[in-house]
Prior knowledge:
Blueprint: E1 2-5, E2 16-19, E3 29-39, H1 41-47, E4 64-72, E5 84-88, E6 97-101, E7 105-107, H2 114-117, H3 120-134, E8 142-145, H4 151-162, E9 166-170, H5 176-182, E10 186-188, H6 195-202, E11 208-213, H7 218-225, E12 227-235, H8 249-257, H9 264-270, E13 273-276, H10 286-301, E14 309-314, H11 318-326, E15 333-337
Parallel strand pairs: 8-9, 8-11, 9-10, 11-12, 12-13, 14-15
Antiparallel strand pairs: 1-2, 3-4, 3-6, 3-15, 4-5, 5-7
Helix pairs in contact: 3-4, 3-10
Amino acid sequence: MKQIWIPRTGGPDVLELRESPDPEPAAGEVRVRVKAAGVNFADVVMRMGLYRGAGKVPCVPGYEVAGRIEAAGAGVAGLSVGDPVVVGLRSGGYSDVAVVPESQAMRVPANVSLEAAATLPVNYVTAWLMLVWLGNVRRRERVVIHSAGGGVGLAAMQIARWRGAEIIGLASAWKHERLREAGVDHCIDYTAEDFAPRVMELTGGRGADVVLDSSGGDSFRKSYRCLAPLGRLFLYGAAGLAPARTRRLLPALSWWLRLPRFRPLRLMMENRAVFGVHVGQLWERRDVLQEIMEDVLYLTSDGTLRPVVDRTFPLEEAAAAHAYLQDRRNFGKVLLTP
């Protein structure tokens, strides 16, 4: 078994390849030979030691893998050796082998590639939780998506388009043409202008019905100001915590100090809602995650959802994958391919 470890906090170069014997599945477990593993910004923040919800280093990062079952323990009945499966994990995805309970592995439809499947447990489930499960986005509602060219951003765009919403995407200018081709109605270059006034202009001063914000800091405050009456703000990331490849405490402290405080009475008077979403902290609701994954897999199988894989890296080049993602060079998902 090959795995990528975070032995200590630091830049991408701290990531370390280690080898050990393949583990054997116990009763009720399956061993999956991994073909693709998702790389997420949460992995970057974990590597930098800025992720409160992560386990302590040393550890193996990674929350999602797809591959084929190569061994099954006693009592496994619903899956068989050779089945293609996708798995959501608490950790340990940066590996060429994953041993998990049978209930944690979901069969991948024949017409969905394993690379596409590996994009689903984090990006598409997060987007679905925000837009469908909690946000109940309706036709003609206006949805603002931060980091629209990233993994969650593109997943959210596809789901919002399926629901009939008007989409405003925030991304660097070089991504705008591809975003428009993908279905985004309006693009804002957040690096060149303040997005809040532009959102209000595009909505005729009314504001947005839904805003998905993964940046944090003062961005949360501005996103809240963009909400229309009955608007819903979803906070699901902390990209602003990691402006550089290594941990810098002063920028991180500034990020924390600029977080807004949402007052209950004000929320009531303004008819607005603020949600926090973190798929990695929903393991006690496996029923919800499984239901969402079933819907996402079905819509991927019928072509409604089309995962965008920007680039794959060999497992041994996990450091390069982290640098690529942290430099915001991706349009879509970044994967490791053991």
